[in-house]
Design brief:
The chain is an alpha/beta fold and 241 residues long. It has 7 helices and 11 strands. Helix 3 crosses helix 5.
Length: 241
């Protein structure tokens, strides 16, 4: 673990502006597990991370006030600002980047809907990014992946080389700003921040994530997250709140 004076000032940007179409009309970020909103688990992990100096949340118009209240209720003292996000995820992240403190050198981008983030994982990705300029958590895929076109299999990539990318993703803030600007200018839609950086010819480093670090997308994911949080116990579950 790097001490604060030994590492770059690092802000966390929480992407919390997405829709919840697959949640059956409910808001996945405000859905509760053990009476605690999903977004609160995410923010608490960042609050406890020794590598995060401040947090900027990019929220949708609909959950701007509720998320602000969650920050107050759960004592998330590192939250620097809650901003209104943009049309796309990349727009929201860029708007949040522009609100980070001027002293920020690196930024950790985290999906608000990944409540099983641990401070330890955040710190591992940060330390790798400080060396490589950009790093992401990822896990090896377990299933065989097929490339399909018009309903027919075209090829089967070797899964030994395939990773499912997660967050956190940590990047030099100037590099990420430039990458997102370039993607927007080129009309490129990027689904994660590393993809934007890759288009500049830079190869992000991989840090082994956790299969527990799921993203809440469907109502069934809430049930899975509940079981996983119970198993985590005092590390990040309800006993830690």
């Amino acid at each position: 673990m790097l001490k604060k004076k030994e590492r770059p000032y690092t802000a966390a940007v929480v992407a919390a502006g997405g829709s919840a179409r697959r949640m059956g009309g409910g808001d996945k970020l405000l859905a509760e597990i053990h009476g605690v909103p999903v977004i609160a688990y995410t923010l608490l992990a960042l609050e406890k991370s020794s590598c995060v100096d401040e947090i900027v949340v990019a929220a949708s118009e609909g959950n701007f006030l509720p998320i602000t209240e969650v920050c107050r209720e759960f004592g998330i003292s590192k939250v620097f600002k809650v901003v209104r996000g943009g049309q796309e995820r990349a727009d929201s992240v860029y708007k949040a980047l522009c609100e980070c403190s001027l002293q920020t050198k690196f930024v950790l981008v985290q999906d608000g809907a990944r409540p099983l983030l641990t401070p330890a994982l955040a710190e591992k990705v940060c330390q790798k990014a400080y060396e490589a300029r950009c790093a992401t958590a990822a896990v090896l895929v377990k299933d065989t992946i097929k490339v399909v076109e018009n309903g027919l299999v075209q090829q089967t990539p070797d899964r030994a080389f395939l990773y499912a990318v997660q967050t956190p993703q940590v990047t030099d803030i100037d590099l990420l700003k430039g990458a997102l600007c370039k993607a927007a200018q080129d009309g490129e839609k990027v689904t994660d921040d590393c993809a934007a950086v890759e288009k500049l010819g830079i190869r992000p480093a991989i840090v082994m994530g956790s299969y527990d670090n799921i993203k809440i997308t469907t109502p069934e994911d809430l049930d899975i997250a509940q079981v996983l949080l119970e198993r985590m116990g005092t590390e990040q579950g309800r006993n830690n709140l």
